[in-house]
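cron nightly-structures :: item 1 of 1
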Amino acid sequence: MFVPQSPRISRLLVPAVQCPTPTLLAAAERPKRVKVLRSDGTEKSAPGAADIRILSSCLPPVKPASNVATQLSYGLHSGETVTVRMHASALQRLVSHCLLSSRHGYEVAGVLAGYRHESTGTKGIQHCLDVTDVLPIESQDRSGSHIRVDERSWGIVERMLLDLNGSQEKCKLAWYHTHPTQGIFFSRGDWESHLLFARPYQFALVVDPRSMKAGLFYWSDYDSRLHGEPLYFSLKQETE
């Protein structure tokens, strides 16, 4: 798990259009939606291997299949596979938090936590993620097209993650945010924010609170900054 040191995340205004293929996008073509800053205001670069701390004890207990509301799987450039299992209680909490975005019109964001199990078989390394916890992030600086997360808010989430790891051996799996009016896409700035999630199994969700549809975005190859093919699914139908 990478713990940001004094980060500040903000997304700037951009047109509500689908993000072009990153390999074809010049650096000056679009403004950043996401910047991660240090406390002194300088921009924080992507973490190196030495800067990443992993909570290694993330093995899931045996869970009945009835607890899983939806399941998604995808492959990475390395040949590894990732299976995401959203537990019903976590999915309901995620929907409840994202619904606030459609009511007040502001973006909301948070972190997803749970268990991670890694196994090696004939098809290579397989990561199985059980998403069991939703940790909303507080923000006083937000609008319908941006959200800014300060050091205090990140500190609260960090302490919650450490408590979950210490008491239940859970870890950080993903982050999410809503697009109240823009639709589902992952901007170049969002990808820059996602650099903080360097583990091959970590992903991000963008949720449209009006339709309760979501897009899952991930690194197919972090070192090469290769983006995976997004997965789109409905949160609403799984909770009805």
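cron nightly-structures :: done
Helices lie at 88-104, 151-168, 188-194, 236-239.
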